[in-house]
Specification:
Blueprint (H helix, E strand, L loop, with lengths): L4 H18 L12 H4 L5 E6 L1 H4 L4 H10 L2 E4 L5 H4 L9 H12 L3 E9 L18 H18 L6 E6 L12 H6 L3 H12 L4 E6 L5 H16 L6 E4 L2 E2 L6 H12 L4 E9 L31 H20 L4 E6 L32 H11 L3
Parallel strand pairs: 1-2, 1-9, 2-3, 3-4, 4-5, 5-6, 6-8, 7-8, 8-9
Helix pairs in contact: 7-9, 10-11, 12-13
Bound molecules: ligand 9MR.
Ligand 9MR binds next to loops.
Length: about 375
């Protein structure tokens, strides 16, 4: 249900008044209007849940998640090395809690991720002697993993990142163990197994650097092949690990368009905007690591106002782009909640102080949250 601009303005003013009136009794985290309400006619707003969220120990975090988000994704607990650490031994405890939390709060629940070369346990690819398994065994292990994990949450998890990061920035296929042992049928098989396990869950291909022309074309080609083979793919996740100069917003827009043209749900799945300098060419390739250097950690003592202003503007520019494509974009997910727990502090260099998310280290909504909420008013 879309509301008109005047109604929206009224809604925002009412929200602010409510906040002002109730602020005497409320905690700091309850003082901003909610992101999920502001964007409710546009797309769902998600965040990634970590261990403290899943087990409920981070109570301040939990309050913020309930207040601002209506979609959640598992940051780590559903990755194969966590959920099937050795063959046939599944650890579902944390993932169960994650799903229960989403259900209890009526949220859109996303499983991340079934087939990813990284964070896959070593046993997955080798036999008892340590030699690569045969193609048949590899397919069987993949099938068993997908059927068991997706099957456990059938009807409860709304969408799965079925395959993650399989295409290189130049559009070629990443030479993973899955690819090496099974060949280029492995992605098709992964989607077929996921569909077999839960025909009602949405199935996604998810990757970073989706604004790169080569990757854009490679992913388009992949999806076309799957569609031609009658394999169900429902959406494409554009991870959205961004920096101040990367990616170019118009290149990012071209990819949204290209994926929407394939009738895919487009999702921004892992958004964060780092402020820190990057050693080398900017990417989100997790295997990258660099030695700590003081000069690469410029904001450890605090963030200068001008840098923060530029960072806010970048968030606003991207959310404006997402609003422009809200007919095609079904979800925007932030990769984490507060600056204290973002992966960015430790990648590609351990021990830095970054500010990529919407909530600060004291669980306070940053001023940009109100600005992103306000943006919806001008876009009705
Ligand atoms: O944020 C995640 C971090 O806690 C993990 O250590 C890391 C390795 O599993 O994965 C991070 O999340 C990645 C996501 O699963 C896939 N896209 C890139 C993300 C950032 O590395």
């Amino acid at each position: 249900m879309k509301t008109n601009r005047r109604e929206s303005k009224m809604w925002f003013i009412t929200m602010l008044l409510t906040v002002a009136v109730t602020s005497c009794n409320s905690t700091a985290t309850e003082q901003t209007p909610s992101l999920k309400d502001a964007y409710q006619n546009k797309f769902v707003i998600g965040t990634a849940l970590n261990k403290g969220h899943n087990y409920g120990t981070d109570t301040l975090g939990i309050n913020l998640i309930k207040q601002h988000f209506n979609s959640i994704v598992a940051e780590n607990c559903m990755k194969s090395m966590h959920i099937q650490p050795s063959e046939g031994v599944f650890f579902f405890d944390e993932a169960d809690k994650f799903v229960e939390f989403g259900e209890a709060n009526n949220m859109n629940i996303i499983g991340h991720t079934l087939i990813w070369h990284s964070q896959a346990p070593d046993w997955f690819f080798v036999d008892e002697e340590g030699a690569d398994v045969t193609r048949e065994v590899m397919i069987e292990r993949m099938r068993n993993h997908i059927l068991t994990v997706v099957g456990r949450y059938k009807g409860r998890v709304d969408g799965w990142d079925v395959v993650n990061e399989a295409i290189m920035d130049d559009g070629s296929w990443r030479n993973t163990k899955f690819y090496e042992i099974i060949g280029d049928e492995y992605i098709k098989l992964a989607f077929q197994f996921a569909n077999e396990a839960d025909p009602d869950a949405e199935l996604y291909y998810n990757d970073y650097a989706m604004s790169a022309e080569g990757k854009r074309n490679g992913v388009v080609e992949l999806v076309k092949q799957l569609q031609a083979a009658g394999v169900r793919v429902d959406g494409i996740g554009m991870q959205g690990h961004m920096g101040m100069d990367y990616p170019d917003i118009s290149e990012f827009e071209k990819s949204i368009k290209a994926f929407a043209d394939l009738h895919m749900n487009v999702m921004i799945t892992e958004m964060d905007i780092t402020l820190l300098p990057f050693p080398g060419e900017e990417t989100a390739e997790v295997s990258l690591s660099a030695e700590y250097q003081e000069k690469m950690n410029p904001y450890a003592a605090g963030l200068p106002d001008d840098i923060n202003a530029a960072w806010e503007q970048r968030y606003i520019d991207y959310f404006q782009l997402f609003l422009n494509y809200s007919d095609n974009i079904s979800r925007v997910t932030l990769w984490g909640l507060t600056d204290a727990d973002t992966w960015r502090n430790d990648w590609p260099m351990v021990g830095r102080t970054d500010y990529p998310l919407l909530f600060d280290r004291d669980y306070q909504a940053k001023p940009v949250v109100d600005k992103l909420i306000e943006l919806t008013i001008n876009n009705e």
